[in-house]
Amino acid sequence: MLDVCLLGSGGMMPLPYRWLTSLMTRFNGSSLLIDCGEGTQIAVKEKGWSFKPIDTICFTHYHGDHISGLPGLLLTMGNADRKEPLTLIGPKGLERVVNALRVIAPELPFPIIFKEIQGPEQTFEEKGYRIRAFRVHHNVLCYAYTIEIDRAGRFDVDRARNAGIPMQFWNRLQKGEQIEAEDGTLWRPEDVLGPARKGIKVTYCTDTRPTKEIAQQAAGSDLFICEGMYGEPEKAKKAVEYKHMTFTEAAALAKQAQPKEMWLTHYSPSLVRPEDYMEDVRRIFPRAYPGKDGKSVTLDFEEE
Ligand SMILES: [Zn+2]
Ligand SMILES: [Zn+2]
């Protein structure tokens, strides 16, 4: 199961009671963060989650509202005496941008691994998460992410017995490990597992105009978190100019992608009550909700 928390729901600048847009997930003891604007640390604290298991941080792009919280977070992780490496994933320029911010956090007790996204789309495997970055359309180089948790096929007890595999190895095979017996016999997970089952998928997309890639990549998501900078229909022109989206544009993407649920986020500071504009959104895509700071869900594998 995957715990998901939208730490903040604001765009451009943090406000009292509205932190900047950032997503945190927890799976199998390893946490992942997407975006880290000013104040993200406080949002994590408010949620009551720990910094310690954060092993991966992904950045959509290098506007301040998505990365300026990083040096403080690194210092906090350093003060907690983290030793394990931290992986950072982001668009071209990752190491240069992070090292510039690190002038104020130069000495850390843990190594940083930089993974710069190459080309329009790239997939990373990190601690059980499959992370796919795909290019979107903002006024600087920007990517959205899908996070997927795979689920192996069902363990076939009869096949395992017939193959004479001792029970002590079953658990490891179920987890995808290959086993070599003392006599050299090799047992592979695919010998005893059925076809892969539906996993969990979350798509996070902010700071972009709508694109057909977003609808394609978000298809089949359990949760689609999408920017909605403006609720007011009269701000449609502004959304085009600043390379953002209106609520109804986000809803149109969700209608194409058909996720189980959509949450809006990255509200303009001028947008005080997002819920006032949800009627139009739900007419296009009924399973839409306004994101709120700390809004959370636990996504489970489907029952069969
Ligand atoms: Zn932004
Ligand atoms: Zn931006």
In short:
The protein has 11 helices and 16 strands. It is α/β, with parallel strands linked by helices and 304 residues long.
Describe this structure in words.
The mean pLDDT is 96. 25% of the residues lie in helices and 28% in strands. With 304 residues, the protein is of the alpha/beta class. The relative contact order is 0.15. Helix 8 packs across helix 10. The protein is built from eleven helices and 16 strands. The radius of gyration is 21 Å and the shape is globular. It binds zinc ion (ZN) (2 copies).
List the helices and strands and how they pair.
Blueprint: E1 2-8, E2 22-27, E3 30-34, H1 40-47, E4 54-58, H2 64-67, H3 70-79, E5 86-90, H4 94-101, E6 112-116, E7 121-126, E8 129-135, E9 143-151, H5 157-162, H6 170-174, E10 179-180, E11 186-187, H7 189-192, E12 197-205, H8 212-218, E13 223-227, H9 236-241, H10 247-257, E14 262-265, H11 278-284, E15 288-290, E16 295-299
Parallel strand pairs: 3-4, 4-5, 5-6, 12-13, 13-14, 14-15
Antiparallel strand pairs: 1-2, 1-16, 2-3, 7-8, 8-9, 9-12, 10-11
Helix pairs in contact: 8-10, 10-11
Residues 11, 63, 65-66, 207, 266 line the site of one zinc ion.
What would you call the shape?
Answer: globular
How would a textbook summarize the main sheet?
7 strands, mixed
CA radius of gyration is 21 Å
Multimerization status: single chain
Q: How many β-strand runs?
A: 16
- Enumerate how many helices there are, as a single number: 11
Helix content: 25-40%
